[in-house]
Amino acid sequence: MTTTPKYLHGQDLELTIRGLIDRHEELQWAVAWGSMGPLAKHMLRHAAKVKRFAIGTHFHQTDPELLEALRDVAGVRVVSNSSAGTFHPKIYLFRTGRRFALVLGSPNFTRAAFGTNYEAALYIEGDTSEELYRDVSDGIRAVWEDANEIRDDFLRAYRLKHQATRTARKDLETDLPIGLPTTDSDYRNLLDDDWAAFVRRVKSDPHHDIEGRVTIMDHARVWFSQTPRFEDMAEGQRKAIAGTYARNETKPADLPDLDWAWFGSMAGAGVFKGLVKSQPAGLSAALDCIPRTGTINETDFDRFRLRFLESFKGAERGGGLATASRLLALKRPDYFVCVDSPNRDKLSEAVGVKKSHLTLDLYWTHIVRPLLCSPWWNSPRPMSDLDGRLWDSRMAFIDAFCYER
C-alpha cells in the first residue's frame, strides 16, 4: 500500500535521493536538465542500476560535461529540443523487487537544485502492483523510447550551442534592476513607450536639429566601418567621435560641418582630450572590445570598462562615465547613450535610477539593461529613411529629450 506522501525540501532532498540510489536495485528517471555535481557523481558510481533515464536539453540548460559522462550509461537517452513544447519533468522513480519509491517535485538533476535553490518535492513509497507505479513507469518509458542515445555528433553540436548561449543564460540568472520613475517625471514612461511614442519624444527636441543629429551618427558609423580602430582614424575624426571639439574651434576642412558637441560635449575633459589627440592607443583598445555590429553583452562592456580605465593610468585624472559613454554612444548608438551633466537629471528620472548610481561601474546594470527591455528598443526597423536611421541610433537619441541646457 502507498505510504502517506512526505514533504521534502532543502538538504532532505539530496540526502533522500542519495539514500534511494544506494538502497534500490533500479532507477527510472525523467528530468528536464542536469549538471555535474556531487549527486550526479554519486549516481554515476551506481550507473549499472539505471534502467531508463531521459534527460532534456531545452534552452541548452543541461551541462555537456554531464552528458559526456552519461554517454556510456546504457539506460540514458537525451530528449532534444523541439518546437512541440519544453520537456520539463522532474521524476525520480526507484524499485527493488515489488517495492518502489518516488520523488516527484521541482528539482532538476542539477548542482543548484540539490544545493542552493529552494526546491520542494513529495516522497512516496508503495508496491509495484499499484496504479501509481504503473502510470509513472509507463510515462517514463514513453518519453525514453522517443528519446535518442547520446552520440558523438549530437554531443559535439550541443557543446557548441551550449557555449554560444552561455551569456544569455547568465543574463537570465541575474536580477534585472528596473526602478520606478519619479511620479513627476516628464519621461516616466520611457521604459514602456512603443516606437511611435519614442519617435515623438525624439522629434520634439527643442534644442537640436534631428537631421543634424542623425547625420552625426551616419558619419561615425561610416568612419568605424572604413577604419575600425579608433587610433587609426585621423585626429579630426577622433576628436569628433570623442566630442572634444569646442564649438568655436577650427576644424579640418574635410570634417563635416556639424555640431560634434551634440550627444555629449567633452570639450572640458582635459586629460581625455589629450589622450584622444596624442595617445589614443588605450582608448582604441577599449573600443575594440565593443563589436561594431551584432549583439553586445555585459562581458563586452566589462572588457571595455577595464581597458578604458587603464588608458588613464598615470594621468592626473581618471576617466568617468561621461567620457566613456560618449565613445560608446558614437561607436554603437543602438546600445549606448552618453550620460553627462546636461542629461543626467532627466535620464535618472526617466529610468528610475538614483543619480548616485550613474557611474561607469553601474552603467550597464542600471541604464543599458533596463532600456534594452523597452518596447521601442525591441521594435523592428522602420522602412522610412529618417526613422530607420534614427532606429539605428535609438539608444543614443534618448539624449534628444533628456537634454537640458
What is the straight-line distance between the termini? 79 Å
Per the principal axes of the C-alpha atoms, what is the gross shape? elongated
- State the helical fraction: 40-55%
Taken together, the total number of domains comes to 2
Number of helices, where a helix is a run of at least 4 consecutive DSSP H or I residues: 17
Q: Strands of the biggest beta sheet: in what spatial order?
A: 1-7-6-5-2-3-4
Average pLDDT, rounded to a whole number, is 91
What is the string of SSEs from the N terminus onward? EHEHEHEEEEHHHHHHHHHHHHHH
Rounded to an integer in angstroms, the radius of gyration calculated over CA atoms is: 28 Å
Unreliable residue stretches = none
In oligomeric terms, what are we looking at? Answer: single chain
* Secondary structure: number of strands: 7
Largest sheet: 7 strands, mixed
Helix/strand-derived category reads alpha/beta
Estimate what percentage of residues fall within beta strands. Answer: 5-15%
Summarize the entry for a quick read:
By secondary structure, the protein is of the alpha/beta class.
Describe the protein in words.
There is one protein chain. This protein is an alpha/beta fold and 405 residues long. It has helices at 11-23, 38-44, 64-70, 131-146, 152-164, 166-173, 195-203, 210-226, 235-242, 270-278, 281-287, 298-310, 321-331, 341-351, 363-372, 385-392, 399-402; strands spanning 6-9, 26-31, 50-56, 76-79, 90-96, 99-105, 120-127. It has 2 domains: 6-172, 2-Layer Sandwich (Endonuclease, Chain A), CATH 3.30.870; 195-402, no CATH class. Strands 1-7-6-5-2-3-4 form a 7-stranded mixed sheet, sandwiched between helices. The radius of gyration is 28 Å and the shape is elongated.
